[in-house]
């Protein structure tokens, strides 16, 4: 089990230093985020603690050996008066123990019966170790979802900048055409002014796009946990998916690490109730030992070996056991409710993600058609304007339509990828690889 968890933890150490990293793709960005995230580091410590507690629970089955040495100094000791049979002799006093003496004792105690406490305690710690492992995986999945969505937002923002640049380029070209025609007296001053307005509008559009890119980049760096990093931003694509919501929900109930975590916590709570009941049963232990002392007068050193079978029957502890039992039952019910709530949230998340994906796919198809139509419209409008059978307004409108259509396509593809990241988070699996 230790080796399996290392696949999650120690793999982060294989990542190149961020100081020398250049153009990191999404996969390596995810690794960097996992390596730097403090919550992952905390969960790693929790796992180590749970593993040590499990080993401690195993140790409680083993015998306990104790060595005890004491040196006693007493101000007074009990004495016995002894009358001697010889006439005329006064009674003699003899101490029962020495005033100053030492005692050495070695004992071995082996629990034989604990009412199931040791066994149930071991099962709880074992379940806790596995539960923390899935808690770590759940946190990893959550961070991956955040970084993926940040990356897709950054890619969307970068493409928006590219679209804005092409808008500026087209507006500048139209402005140059309008200026040339105006100088030749072919078009009125209104066409020139309209072209200038459109060009400055395109510059403003580019400025906003660049600002959006900077914000998206800063959010990604913040969530990764680094101040400087060069990112290899790929243009987003999409692959049509055939999604069965019911099967996805079933997959999530089987694979989502949060569900696995809560199921283990439920088993842990069941053993907790059994431990609470074990408090009412007797405890049996075997004891063997060796003792040596010089406390007896007239005997240089006295030693002995001994053995015992101890039975401890709890009778009354001030109702503590009763309240601990009720607490254990409430804890079990609390975990049951948490598991049900988690399943409901995951089901809702999957339904919402699938709905977003289908909506995005529909928008992508519509936007693709709009881009092609707007491209043809712009080409036709420019040709008509150059041939002096079209107006400057037609060209400006066509540029705006083309830019808007490309923006809609870019936004739809980004939304598709973000929804897919959410779906993979809820199901706990890679959706694209399963298609």
From TrEMBL:
Protein's cellular compartments: Cell outer membrane
Gene3D superfamilies in alphabetical order: Outer membrane efflux proteins (OEP)
InterPro entries xref list: OMP_efflux, TolC-like
GO CC terms: cell outer membrane; efflux pump complex
Listed GO MF terms: efflux transmembrane transporter activity; porin activity
Coiled-coil ranges per UniProt: 357-384
Domain of life: Bacteria
Chief location category: membrane
Annotated signal sequence range: 1-21
Family statement: Belongs to the outer membrane factor (OMF) (TC 1.B.17) family.
Protein name: Outer membrane protein TolC
């Amino acid at each position: 089990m230790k080796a399996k968890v290392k696949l999650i933890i120690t793999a982060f150490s294989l990542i190149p230093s961020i100081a020398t990293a250049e153009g990191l793709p999404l996969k390596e960005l995810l690794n960097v985020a996992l390596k730097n995230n403090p919550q992952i580091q905390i969960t790693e410590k929790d796992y180590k603690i749970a593993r040590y507690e499990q080993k401690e629970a195993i140790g409680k089955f083993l015998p306990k050996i104790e060595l005890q040495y004491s040196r006693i100094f007493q101000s007074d000791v009990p004495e016995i008066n002894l009358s001697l049979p010889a006439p005329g002799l006064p009674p003699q006093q003899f101490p029962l123990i020495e005033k100053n003496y030492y005692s050495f004792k070695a004992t071995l105690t082996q629990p034989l019966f604990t009412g199931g406490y040791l066994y149930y305690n071991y099962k709880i710690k074992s379940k806790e170790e596995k539960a923390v492992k899935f808690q770590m995986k759940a946190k990893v999945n959550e961070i991956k979802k955040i970084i993926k969505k940040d990356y897709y937002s950054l890619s969307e923002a970068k493409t928006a900048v590219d679209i804005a640049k092409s808008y500026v380029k087209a507006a500048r070209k139209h402005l140059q055409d309008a200026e040339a025609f105006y100088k030749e007296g072919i078009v009125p001053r209104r066409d020139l002014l309209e072209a200038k307005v459109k060009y400055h509008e395109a510059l403003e559009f580019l400025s906003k796009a660049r600002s959006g890119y900077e914000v998206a980049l800063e959010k990604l760096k913040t969530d990764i946990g680094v101040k400087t990093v060069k990112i290899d931003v790929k243009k987003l694509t999409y692959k049509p998916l055939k999604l069965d919501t019911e099967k996805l929900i079933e997959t999530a109930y089987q694979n989502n690490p949060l569900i696995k975590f809560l199921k283990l916590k439920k088993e842990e709570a069941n053993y907790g109730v059994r431990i609470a009941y074990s408090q009412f049963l007797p405890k049996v232990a075997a004891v063997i030992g060796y003792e040596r002392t010089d406390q007896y007068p007239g005997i240089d050193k006295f030693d002995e070996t001994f053995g015992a079978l101890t039975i401890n029957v709890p009778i009354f502890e001030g109702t503590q056991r009763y309240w601990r039992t009720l607490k254990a039952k409430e804890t079990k019910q609390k975990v049951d409710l948490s598991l049900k709530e988690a399943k409901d949230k995951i089901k809702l998340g999957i339904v919402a993600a699938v709905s977003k994906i289908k909506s995005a796919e529909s928008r992508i198809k519509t936007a693709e058609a709009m881009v092609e139509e707007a491209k043809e419209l712009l080409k036709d409008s420019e040709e008509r304007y150059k041939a002096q059978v079209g107006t400057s307004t037609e060209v400006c409108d066509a540029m705006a339509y083309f830019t808007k259509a490309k923006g809609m396509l870019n936004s739809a593809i980004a939304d598709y990828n973000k929804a897919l990241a959410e779906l993979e988070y809820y199901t706990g699996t890679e959706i694209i690889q399963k298609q």
